[in-house]
């Protein structure tokens, strides 16, 4: 899969981490940007991130994909996402 790719709902870029969040939420056919995931589940951006982050980190299948995105410079939407929160924790 080539990242980023466009969200089917809004066209914003989907990074590797938003892709992983989408899969963790059960969206196997189409994946969504964090903003659209938040709207679909009735959360604001940061709350959506917090909601799914713990789940992703607790599942090796999702966590191994999550850690492939190693640097803030890989974020396609640094001004529209939760980049500081997303890269504030050290994943192992």
Shape: globular
- SSE succession: EEHHHHH
* Cα Rg: 12 Å
Show unreliable segments: none
Strand content: under 5%
Task: Indicate the percent of residues in helices.
Answer: 40-55%
How many beta strands in the DSSP annotation?
Answer: 2
Instruction: Please work out how many helical segments DSSP would assign.
Output: 5
How much is the average pLDDT? Answer: 90
State the end-to-end distance.
Answer: 23 Å
Query: Pairing-aware structural class of the strands and helices?
Result: mainly alpha
Strand order of the largest sheet: 1-2
Largest sheet: 2 strands, antiparallel
Write the layout of secondary structure elements.
Layout: E1 5-6, E2 13-14, H1 16-24, H2 34-41, H3 45-57, H4 60-66, H5 83-86
Antiparallel strand pairs: 1-2
Please describe what this structure looks like.
This protein is mainly α. 45% of the residues lie in helices and 4% in strands. It is built from five helices and two strands; from the N terminus they run E-E-H-H-H-H-H. Strands 1-2 form a two-stranded antiparallel sheet. It is globular, with a radius of gyration of 12 Å.
């Amino acid at each position: 899969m080539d990242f980023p790719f466009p969200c089917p709902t809004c066209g914003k870029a989907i990074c590797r981490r938003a892709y992983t969040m989408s899969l963790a939420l059960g969206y196997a056919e189409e994946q969504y940007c964090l903003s659209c995931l938040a709207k679909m589940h009735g959360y604001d951006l940061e709350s959506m991130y917090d909601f799914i982050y713990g789940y992703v980190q607790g599942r090796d299948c999702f966590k191994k994909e999550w850690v492939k995105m190693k640097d803030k410079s890989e974020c396609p939407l640094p001004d529209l996402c939760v980049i500081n929160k997303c890269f504030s924790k050290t994943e192992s």
